[in-house]
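Entry 12.
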Amino acid sequence: MRPGRWHLSNHDALVFPGSFKLKTAAEDFSVVPPFEIRSGGAEQRVPFLFNSPHSGRHYPDRFLAMARLDRNAIRRSEDCYVDELFGGAVALGAPMLAANFPRAYLDVNREPWELDPRMFAEPVPSFCNIRSARVAGGLGTVPKLVGEGLDIYAGRLPLAEAVARIEAVYKPYHETLKRLLTRTHARFGFAVLIDCHSMPASIRVGDSGVRPDFIVGDRFGMSAAAALTETAIGLLIGMGYTVAHNKPYAGGFITEHYGRPVRHLHALQIEVNRGLYMDERTFQKSAGFDALADDLAKFSADLMAMPDHNFIDLPLAAE
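Predicted 3D structure (tokens):
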């Protein structure tokens, strides 16, 4: 996605009057910020950055009033507690960017204008990506569905609502993420983004139908050095977990967009099976939560201990 496609033109503003009146979306997070950088007040000590874009659990009243789903049903797409599971990395000197806005409200792991035209009362701008597989599945930048195909809204939304969320929340989130990565790269000579997610316990992979505990995604080798991927998988297997690689989740927009190994920018997506740490029906943490969080703190520490040359001395054909 070229940066120029991230902005509406003056022509589009005239075609869709009112699309830049952002106070409604901004007010959704006037008390709770839409996202936050967690650093524990300490200086960054490692070239790693953790990101939790789907664990937000602040559901604005205005948003809930638009939705046809109750407070429980609308949480089915939430990566519950993932920010807490990986929170041990912060104490090790790695900042974490964590969303407070819910994925059902806005999905920053999509292109900025990946919109389903069937969701809106007005035509979407011509530059929108309306034909992606994610849009077809109801999971665009402003999602249509949660969970097992549940419609979020009873009717069509004003297009200005989507524009407001993208302008007021999506763009600042990505500007912050980019700034953190740029700062990390400038300080250490390379940067490693660990994009943290969770997946339903029902996920199965391969002909044998194995349920993986983790799925590590590197866009089929395009977003991270092979050594990073191999080490991550090896560490998790060494802890006794079942790990899949790239299937069915190879990484979303964030992994693809920010992972540039030949520029010494590495991005790895890690999916955690929710069955390991929570009850998906009640959204309550299970008895395994603390042990998993401890394992992920150790995993993070071991990953950060990798020698720098793994991220800098790469084959010319890495990208």
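Annotation: The chain is about 30% helix and 15% strand. The mean pLDDT is 91.
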